[in-house]
């Protein structure tokens, strides 16, 4: 014999009224940024004693200049220039070699064609 009756039927809960417990919708944007810390600023980091910040898609030194050894910087620039010149020279050489290959291939095809014509001509004579 059940204590609470034959069937279990709980009462339906009434729908909740939409009441926000947060007062964020009463604040203006600047107050919300201050309250919630939504003002992040620019990302920054310290790497090997050099302070860098991220601006316009690039990492930039906060001091505005390279603080390393000037001789090292000059050496790196000179090496970069040498490598760029070497790269340009190698590109030029590749272009020349491709032109030479194209010319040789064209001459080879012409010679093969002439040889085939000579063979056909000699077969007709026999």
TrEMBL record:
<protein>
    <submittedName>
        <fullName>Protein chibby homolog 1</fullName>
    </submittedName>
</protein>
<keyword id="KW-0175">Coiled coil</keyword>
<dbReference type="InterPro" id="IPR028118">
    <property type="entry name" value="Chibby_fam"/>
</dbReference>
<dbReference type="Pfam" id="PF14645">
    <property type="entry name" value="Chibby"/>
</dbReference>
<dbReference type="GO" id="GO:0030178">
    <property type="term" value="P:negative regulation of Wnt signaling pathway"/>
</dbReference>
<feature type="coiled-coil region">
    <location>
        <begin position="66"/>
        <end position="121"/>
    </location>
</feature>
<dbReference type="GO" id="GO:0005634">
    <property type="term" value="C:nucleus"/>
</dbReference>
């Amino acid at each position: 014999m059940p204590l609470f009756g034959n069937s279990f039927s709980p009462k339906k809960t009434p729908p909740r009224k939409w009441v926000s417990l947060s007062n964020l919708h009463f604040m203006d944007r600047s107050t919300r940024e201050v309250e919630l810390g939504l003002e992040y600023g620019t990302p920054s980091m310290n790497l090997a004693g050099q302070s860098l910040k991220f601006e316009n898609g690039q990492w930039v030194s906060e001091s505005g200049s390279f603080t390393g050894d000037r001789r090292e910087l000059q050496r790196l620039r000179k090496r970069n220039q040498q490598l760029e010149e070497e790269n340009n020279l190698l590109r030029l050489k590749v272009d020349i070699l491709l032109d030479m290959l194209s010319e040789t291939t064209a001459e080879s095809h012409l010679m093969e064609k002439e040889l085939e014509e000579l063979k056909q001509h000699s077969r007709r004579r026999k």
